[in-house]
Amino acid sequence: MSDDLLRDSGLPEEIWESLAKETQKIKVVAEKRRWGKYMTVISGLDKSVDPKKLVTDLKKKLACGGTFKNDQIELQGDHRKRITAALVGLGFQASSIEVK
Length: 100
Fold this sequence. Notes:
Layout: H1 3-7, H2 13-22, E1 26-32, E2 38-43, H3 51-62, E3 66-69, E4 72-76, H4 83-89, E5 97-99
Parallel strand pairs: 1-5
Antiparallel strand pairs: 1-2, 2-4, 3-4
């Protein structure tokens, strides 16, 4: 079934988003950028999850700056140790999060 067909099934938006979060395959990588600064990059998010809201929630939980661009979430700093707990707190499954 397509995502549009499932969305039209009458499920509330909150339930649809929680189901979508459980099926994500998320990759987390820390990249070294200019002047030796680290950036935590989260990729593999489906279009069914609101990325702008997710960025806002992660920035609050991790106390950092960040943005969403090129279908990736970029957070300032190296948050590989704390990102799994933050994403699980937002409804994602720990088994679907791959941290490198």
